[in-house]
Amino acid sequence: MGMILEFYRLSDEKIIKLKNQSEQSFAEYLEQNYASVYGKEHKENDTVFSLDKTWDVIRFLIIEADKTEHKILSGVYGEPLNGSFYNGYNFLFSENVKLISHTLQKIHYEDLLKFYNEEKMKSQMIYNATNFQLKFLKEEFEILKLAFEKSSQLDSALIINIG
């Protein structure tokens, strides 16, 4: 599993175009325009939202905290653009971004801590956050919420780079 996860904000139409390209072509486009700090679309906390090592713990916690009937937050990291879930690119169209954002905005950091259980995370092969890393969890959770909130407000889709 990768140590970094990034969200790239772009349009539904752009994702459709990327899905119709070869894996190499869309990977090069995303690397050059979003992943690279010199990319023309790379604007931190606007078009690019980066999470560090705690992303898998955050995913575990928000799914545990999700009170919706269909556990909508289990789809927070989208579906594969092409290839596999890990070490690749996933996507969420704007409609799903809005649904997830609506649910995500109702969760507060303190709510997540109620579900922090290292034993349960270990049994589910979740990256094992320690107390030292807990201080980063709040900041990373706020970045996740910002990515969805901003994308939802701007009717944008998201590409998720797990790598």
From TrEMBL:
It comes from the Bacteria. InterPro entries: DUF1877 (IPR015068), YfbM-like_sf (IPR035944). This is DUF1877 family protein.
